[in-house]
Amino acid sequence: MQNFSAEAQELGISWKLELVQGKLDQFNWVFFSVIALFHLGAVAALFSFHWSSLAVFAVMWLLGQNLGIAIGYHRQLTHRSFATRKWLQYAMAVCGAMALQGSPTYWVAVHRLHHQYADRLGDPHSPRDGKWWAHMGWILRGALHSEAVMLSRYVPDLKRDRFYRWLAVWHWLPITLVAFVLLGSGAAVGGWSLGLSWVLWGVFLSTTVGSHATWLLNTVTHLWGARRFNTHDDSTNNWWVALLTGGEGWHNNHHAYPVSATHGMAWWELDFNYWVIRIFAWLGLANNVKVMRPNPERKWVTVAPGGIRLVAQHHSGR
Q1: Predicted structure pTM score
Q2: Torsion angles phi and psi, residue 51, rounded to 5
Q3: Residues 6+ away with beta carbon under 8 Å from 240
Q4: pLDDT tens sequence across 85-104
Q5: CB-CB contact of 88 with 285 (8 Å)
Q6: pLDDT below 70 — which residues of the chain?
Q7: What CA–CA distance (Å, rounded) separates 110 from 214?
Q8: With contact defined as beta carbons under 8 Å apart, do 159 and 152 qualify?
Q9: What's the rounded Cα separation, in Å, for the pair 125 and 145?
Q10: How far apart are CA 80 and CA 298, in angstroms?
Q11: What torsion do the CA atoms of 191, 197, 202, 205 make, to the nearest 10 degrees?
Q12: Following DSSP, what letter does each residue of 76-135 receive, concatenated?
């Protein structure tokens, strides 16, 4: 299996860092207030249903959770599983910011930290420290938010980019602008009640459900599911989390081979997010796509779909 330290060296990250997630004595009331507000908005959305609002929710989910977080933040920026032109990379990063899970630099740094210390001392959100802690507690009482300087050392590749330095400050702006666009567009189509419904479904409900979907990866896929590989952590493959997240739930596969663009490594492990990457490659928008799949003898081979250039590696399974 691939050593994540090798990936880190390619990105210029030093594992000499000693950054450990700790619990603060003070409760983070600012984050709690924002999270509570969005949960209230999500509940309110259920009382303002329109079919067009459901369509808005679906579009915002696909843009924020799939294209933004899973494909942009996670598979491209964190693990460099594939490459694109800058304009597409930046567009996906903006979509990720719309999910309101933090800036690319913060999100990527925390996730790289997670892979460095997965389910050991230093993991920002391991269920070994408690299920609630892994799901939301680390956000409300975690010390990482005050470790901006140390976290930045996990993303030297992003810190060198002026756009990501800008987005680190203004990551809240895309979803704010979208909210005003939805409000105005909905009002123009069907009055202010429809505009409000579009905001509740497209911003509050999609963001709230999307956040919990991401947090389920921290908890459920480190607690329950199947393990194809004997990784040095508790990661599992969980089919229903994979369906909910477009393929991120094949988490044991991912921890075994973090840089693989596909997390589904069997024909029945559906990976919608990887299909999007394949479409990008067929359109000439993505290249250097890294793919790993096991054959029936449990040896690792590379698969070359539609002109995708692969990094050849052969490993044994468990």
Answers
A1: 0.86
A2: -60, -35
A3: 249
A4: 999 999 999 999 999 999 99
A5: yes
A6: 1-25, 144-149, 294-318
A7: 13
A8: yes
A9: 13
A10: 25
A11: 170
A12: IIIT--SEE-HHHHHHHHHHHHHTTS--HHHHHHHHHHHHHSTTSTT-TT-GGG-HHIII
For 254-304, what is each residue's pLDDT tens digit? 999 999 999 999 989 999 999 999 999 999 999 999 998 765 544 444 444
CA-CA-CA-CA torsion sign (211, 215, 221, 224): negative
User: For residues 156 and 10, what is the distance between their CA atoms, to the nearest angstrom?
Assistant: 11
Give the pLDDT of residue 15.
Answer: 46
The CA distance from 163 to 1, in Å, is 34
Q: Which residue has the tokens 């070359």?
A: 304
Residue 293 token pair: 């799949």
109-131 per-position pLDDT tens digit = 999 999 999 999 889 999 999 99
Q: Beta strands 286-287 and 83-84: pairing type? A: antiparallel
Structure confidence at residue 113 (pLDDT): 93
* Axis-axis angle for helices 173-190, 51-61 (nearest 10): 160
As a whole number of angstroms, the distance between CA 311 and CA 318 comes to 21
Q: Domain residues of the chain, as ranges?
A: 4-227
HEC readout, 10-39: HHCCCCCCCCCCCECCCCCHHHHHHHHHHH
